[in-house]
Amino acid sequence: MKNLLHTTCLLAGLPLTSALASDFFVSPTGSDTNNGSFAQPFASIQKAANTMFSGDTCHIRAGTYRETVAPPRSGTSTLPIRYQAYSNESVIVTGLDLVSGWSLLSNGIYQCAAPTEVTQLFSDGELMVEARWPNTDTDYLSPTLALVDSASMGAYNQPSTLTDAGLAPFPDGHWNGAKMWYLPGSQWGAGSTTITSHSGNQLDFLNTSKVSALQIETNSKYFLYGTLNALNVQKEWFHDAGQLYFKAPGAANPSGLSVEARTRRYGFDLGWRNYTEIQGLTLRAATITMKGEHNLVEDCSILHPTPFFDAAIWQGDDGVELHGQNNTIRRSEIAWSWGDGVSLNNSAVSNTVENCLIHDCNWGGGWSAPIRTLGTGHAFLGNTIYNSGRSGIRFQKATRLRIEKNHISHMGWLTKDLGAIKTGGTDGLDTVIAYNWVRDHNSAAWCTGIYLDNSSTNHIVHHNAVWNFDNGIRMNKFGTGLYVYNNTMFNSAKESMAHYAPGGETYDGVLTYNNLCTTGPFRGTDLQNNLQDDPANILYAGTEHGDFRTLENSTAIDYGRNIPGYTEGHAGAAPDAGAYEFGGADWIAGIDWTPDWNALPIPAFTISGTTFDASPSTDADGFIMRYDWDFGDGTTAYGKTASHSFATTGTYSVVLTVMDELNGTRQTTNSVTIGAAPVVGIFNLGTDLFMESDGTKHDTDTLLAGKPQSGTNVLDSRRAFLQFDLSALLAEPISNAVLRLYHIEGENDTWGNAQIYPVTSNWTAQTVTYSHPVGSSLGVLVGKDGPFNQYHEMNITPLVQSWQNDLSSNHGISLRGAEPFSLTAKYFQSLEGVHPPQLKITYATTSAGVPVSEAAIEPQAIPALTWFSTTEAYYTIERSTNLVSGEWLPVGSAIEATPPANTFHDHSSTNAAFPLFYRVSTP
């Protein structure tokens, strides 16, 4: 710890501040009577908060902290107060408390004392269901609901009734005093009321809405809750009058389970504190609130921020509360909320939600949203938002907003007549909605991509891609001062641009320019340069996977008009119609990171003549949105398939990059040879081992680098050394050298990168030491996300060229992990493994004969050759392990041509000595 003593002074009008910034530590194994040093940490974050002043940092060790942290002091602009996970350890701040003292009530229902209100219950980490009828699971966006057979509604707050034959099996009075959640006839949003009496198939209750469209009617959906009588199946619970009731999974006695009850709403309550930073924490069944200024939340996971609440017409409930000014939440995941993901109230000013993953919100089906905002001057930038009971970003009476580069999908799971981005009755004061991807909905009816409801004024909507909605953009009656430029709308089931005006109401000052769609109409008072055309003429890169960049010869190219401030820098003679400019700057919406739980896509492609086809690419838990090509000759392309001809002979590395809907990105490379084939050598003989800091060496079929155990001691790491036998290296110039290591999943491979270092002096298996000297890192071979069970490649051409110039300088490479951090182990197969390390060397000189394309080596290290073939030709394949001796072994003969190309797999090479050389000839 740098300093534990604060020097303070009292000056009129000045706050207390620390003379020197200090570091404090918190650990579940600590004590609040300690001094907060690394060796003597506090036990609670609150104790650290009470001790900290401006510039201080609280380092939180791994563990679970059951508390609401309420800092008593603010930081300053130059000396913020910071709460952060220590060394990327897993820190959980939770609103849950452990529950014990269970006794059997009846029918598998247990009870215990719980004097504090319980709003959520977890068993062994799994969310349980608050007792309700009909029974359902925790898929709250697609729950089991009852249907009203008939309804008779009284005036507001007056007695009303409904009937449902499904109620008849229950005895009279069974549901007296229960609560009812319901979706009204319009299904705009949920409400709730209390059952005053139950008899047979009839429920009596009070009407809670003055608007007929928001009242219960025939076929309205509902469920009953708030009574012990609803608790009848496993995983259900109920709390009332200081007692908690629970029917555990598997009919178990909950005393043998880890049962946690939510008794606190907040993990951090910053109140009016300023300049406070929270980094790298997980908040579980807890949220964050702030009313101050210049606070920052980053790299956090905020899960189950909002518990169930009684729904109310036109209302929702808060999630993460950004209620102050100039506060920011970024690069964080917010998920599984009965209410909002992020909430900004009417007094909030200039807050930012940036680069966040916000999903599975508004389980209650009310007016909540992943982002729900009032206030002014906010920026919602680069967020990925999916799965909501109603809208994605909802703003009303909010002004001067920037809603840009968000990726929003799958809204409307529970309600109707909504927008992925929605406002109404609002003067936006030049609110900007731009460069968003808005796609796919789950609403039963009338779901719009961008929805400017009645009396929306002064909004600018430009360069958005909107697809697979009932309406792409909707501007309802009394819309004024709306500017709709360069939007792409595709697959609108009703209309691309819709307008609700039952009394013939008209727009005023609605400019609609340069928009692009496949189905009309366009709406506005001034329509210019809007293009409606067939997809075959527009030539999108891939509508089936959401790539709305246009291809060469698209009718959208140069179709638009200049719009000052919005179309500058266009690539052609005039701006294009639509959201993307052909040949112009590309843009991608959504987060620029990928969550740990996302399975990365697997790229793969085939080559047939001039056609490059990425159809073999897959994504296990989603879908691929982008396919981008780099042909290695200075040209690029995009789309699942691409056509390309190389202008000159040579060998080109063609790189395919794929990206899924959560920004999971991965590349693959195949080599294409135009003209005579190069000589390629594959080296996989030599010496390798890994060792511990105490000198213990391991010569097995595995190479280990990094730390396989937790803690901060860098000497817990392992280091691997690898040296290839290059005695068969040719004297011909080397054009390319690629190191290939096969990454396998091992224990405690959870974080960090594996890097390659050149070894700078000679060593043997007997003489090498843990601290053997190495040069600067050549780069990262593989990161924390893997992938596993495949080869990873690194181009080390300059290093191998230096070895060729002086073979005595070949001291090999060292493989090392992120040594200062916990659990960073990376495992690879060694030279003794089934998939040994390989050094793949391509020589600049070429062999005579048929032009050959050398394809990627298969996982089993079986060489594959592809060459351009001609009709009625036959080919012979020969293999050599030593070009100097000139000995060639036939491995394939009389191979009939299959134009435009043939492929040959040398399965006989399994036991052959490396390196291997091949030549293709015609008899």
UniProtKB/TrEMBL annotation:
PROSITE patterns: PKD
Pfam families registered for this protein in UniProt: Beta_helix, CBM96, PKD_4
Entry GO terms, CC: extracellular region
Keyword GTP-binding: no
GO biological process: proteolysis
Domain PKD: 611-679
An example molecular function term from Gene Ontology annotations: peptidase activity
Compartments reported by the entry: Secreted
Keyword Transmembrane helix set for record: no
Signal peptide stretch: 1-21
Assigned keywords, A-Z: Hydrolase, Protease, Secreted, Signal
Superkingdom of origin: Bacteria
Protein name: Protease 1
Organism: Pontiella sulfatireligans
